[in-house]
# Entry
Amino acid sequence: MADYDWVILGGSLAGQEAAKLAALRGARVALVLENGDPSPPVTTPESLRWFYADAQRVARSPNVAPLDWCAFQAQAALVHENSALHTPTQLMMAGVDVIWGEPTLTSGCRVYVNDRCLTTRKLLIALAGEWFPPDIPGIVAVSCLTPASLAALKTLPKSLLLLGSSPLALEIAQALAQWGVAITLLTPAPQLLPAEESMVSDWVAAELRAAGVHLHLGCQPTSVTVDAAGFSVHTEADRWTADQIVLGTVPRPRLSGLNLASLGVPGDRLAVNAYLQTRHPDIYACGSAVGSDLPVVARHQAEVAVNNALLWNRQRVCYEQLPYTLLTQPEFCRVGLTMAEAEQRYGAHKVVIYEQILDRNRKAQALGNPTGFCRFVTRRNGQLLGAHIVGLQASEWGQVMAIALKHRLTVQELANLPTAPQTL
# Structure
């Protein structure tokens, strides 16, 4: 008989969520943490997104002057400590065996940690992601900052080069520009948010430029150098120099030490099916291990993985009803399909677009931030297919849109919902 029903490798948000859910369902669960610190600082993508969102809020507050980075760091650490979910202590109280060490896999889904062999029925790979430098000649030879190491600096640099346009990178760019840092963001993508509507991407780009961020889209760096002037990124025609380089790419876990090949699961990036199974039917993966660091996706994948590994009713991942948010100012939130996706699925003649500019909203006017818009993608019968929101508290609106999509509401039914007149 196996020691556990469910062994989880990694203390990422997805791993912690999966451990708690499995324990609540009565499973014997072990969580293997690669970090020996029982109280990690603000280092995970989720906590860092809140950190930089709070940094922007503080910088924009008229009641905070002068700005003190060290004081803000202390405040953010306290908030993180008081609001942290699924700490090792909390998980152990829920019945999870928490083990610290570097895991190695062998045949039969056996996990070796600290000279201890764990046998399990099912295995979940949910390692926390790391920021790796992009493939640019010379970048490995220089010391680049990550979003985590940047947040730990006691003194902010005067200028930064951000490589990449991940959601966290965009939030860092706008936040630190408010703190007086000269930000230059370089991305090879011709559009700032390639997966989003061009209208949304252009709007967010305009807001970043208005905050003082220098954006260079479609930029293909050819080399990275360092000299007395600072760190420089070169293209065939241009050169940008700053005090530091920050990696703004999507984090991914370091899988090479797990010995996955011995179980028939090759590659540095895990491929999973719609049930989050790898090539090995008893090994599941979620979170950064499959290319996503968004908290809403990590929680959804954790729930699906636990359901499929421990219960009989198999469940597919469904990303269309999840609210994707960008914690810039103004915020951006998207739920469901883009116009192009809807037209491809249903046909261009069966898709209708509704748009509303936020400056007509009374509360947005009262709060002094009427910048933004709401765009609905619907079928001709009014069924909501997607919502794209840029504006004040857009992440809050997104929750309502996610519920509407899940229950297949029409825009007419949304319009008839009883709401307070003083809301956005």
Notes: The mean pLDDT is 88. Residues 221 and 237 are 10 Å apart (CA to CA). The chain has twelve helices and 19 strands.
